[in-house]
TrEMBL record:
<dbReference type="InterPro" id="IPR036291">
    <property type="entry name" value="NAD(P)-bd_dom_sf"/>
</dbReference>
<dbReference type="GO" id="GO:0016616">
    <property type="term" value="F:oxidoreductase activity, acting on the CH-OH group of donors, NAD or NADP as acceptor"/>
</dbReference>
<keyword id="KW-0560">Oxidoreductase</keyword>
<comment type="pathway">
    <text>Aromatic compound metabolism; phenylpropanoid biosynthesis.</text>
</comment>
<dbReference type="Pfam" id="PF01370">
    <property type="entry name" value="Epimerase"/>
</dbReference>
<dbReference type="InterPro" id="IPR001509">
    <property type="entry name" value="Epimerase_deHydtase"/>
</dbReference>
<keyword id="KW-1015">Disulfide bond</keyword>
<dbReference type="GO" id="GO:0016621">
    <property type="term" value="F:cinnamoyl-CoA reductase activity"/>
</dbReference>
<protein>
    <recommendedName>
        <fullName>cinnamoyl-CoA reductase</fullName>
        <ecNumber>1.2.1.44</ecNumber>
    </recommendedName>
</protein>
<dbReference type="InterPro" id="IPR050425">
    <property type="entry name" value="NAD(P)_dehydrat-like"/>
</dbReference>
<feature type="domain" description="NAD-dependent epimerase/dehydratase">
    <location>
        <begin position="16"/>
        <end position="225"/>
    </location>
</feature>
<keyword id="KW-0521">NADP</keyword>
<comment type="similarity">
    <text>Belongs to the NAD(P)-dependent epimerase/dehydratase family. Dihydroflavonol-4-reductase subfamily.</text>
</comment>
Length: 317
């Protein structure tokens, strides 16, 4: 899953071990040490996207690199430079280490931001976001992801690195860490009552396990090449709220749209056939939403529903 930690850099594989390049001693990464097999096969190395020597030391001796990290912000200074320079550093370090293949986590933000795309046009791996449109609308996250991916392709070609790119949409599903990230807040706000209405807009979704498997498939499949759009469904916000309310009626899920004047936004068309051709079977979006809420309950971010009998007992007292 894309990281919102600008200090994280890459995951590399080598010598039968997994090396996670991140803030090694940062308490927020403690969940990584609890993964199955972590004691035997996980090494945490402290590095930074902007620290080339640190990246080089961590990647040295590895067969593959998964560059998943990116700042998640709409501040152009915090987003664009770390994303682009960090990507160049990772790929250059991988080239120096003679890494077999680099898998780069891009984003739908680098793909679909194009005001000139017609409703009938299918979004696929050939699509690129319009950089001028991103700048004019101050969407610096999408701009940063697009220019970072462009830089990845340029440096990979220059250095002779075998590069494959995964472009996930908004990622849902269980969290490994205890904190809530930006993707999950998108759903959490509909369950806590902080969002009284839903927006007249659409969003594409994918399960986190499918994103992880997509990365493994493009790394392990010798014929994999180019970009891979990683998406399961595009839903209107109203449809998301309807699904959540059906599964979890005990929460104050919004039932009204904030825009009752304009026509209902229509989901865009897309294809995920390239990943299906590699054998990926996508998890239905309803399951994504269900798994997300169950995880939020388990980790204490949502109150557990009170059984009807217990609720009646509470009232009596």
């Amino acid at each position: 899953m894309p990281s919102d930690n600008a200090g994280a850099a890459a995951t590399a594989t080598g010598n039968g071990q997994t090396v996670c390049v991140t803030g090694a001693d940062d308490p927020k990464n403690a969940h990584l040490r609890e993964l199955e097999g972590a004691k035997e096969r996980l090494i945490l190395c402290k590095a930074d996207l902007l620290d080339y020597e640190g990246l080089k030391a961590a990647i040295s001796g590895c067969h593959g690199v998964f560059h998943t990290a990116s700042p998640v912000t709409d501040d152009p200074e915090q987003m664009v430079e770390p994303a682009v320079i960090g990507t160049k550093n990772v790929i250059t370090a991988a080239a120096d280490a003679k890494v077999k293949r680099v898998v780069f986590t891009s984003s739908i933000g680098a793909v679909y931001m194009d005001p000139n795309r017609t409703p009938d046009q299918v979004v696929d791996e050939s699509c690129w976001s319009d950089l001028d449109f991103c700048k004019n609308t101050k969407n610096w996250y999408c701009y940063g992801k697009a220019v970072a991916e462009q830089a990845a392709w340029e440096v990979a070609k220059e250095k002779g690195v075998e590069l494959v790119v995964v472009c996930p949409v908004l990622v849902l599903g269980p969290l490994l860490q205890s904190s809530v990230n930006a993707s999950i807040i998108h759903i959490l706000k509909y369950l806590t009552g902080s969002a009284k209405k839903y927006a007249n807009s659409v969003q594409a979704y994918v399960h986190v396990r499918d994103v992880a498997l997509a990365h493994i498939l493009v790394y392990e499949t010798p014929s994999a090449s180019g970009r891979y759009l990683c998406a399961e469904s595009v839903l209107h916000r109203g449809d998301v709220c309807h699904i959540l309310a059906k599964f979890f009626p005990e929460y104050p899920v919004p039932t009204k749209c904030s825009d009752e004047v304009n026509p209902r936004a229509e989901p865009y068309k897309f294809t995920n056939q390239k990943l299906k051709d590699l054998g990926l079977e996508f998890t239905p979006v309803k399951q994504c939403l269900y798994d997300t809420v169950m995880c939020l309950q388990e980790k204490g971010h949502l109150p557990l529903p009170v059984p009807p009998q217990q609720e009646e007992s509470i009232r009596m007292k």
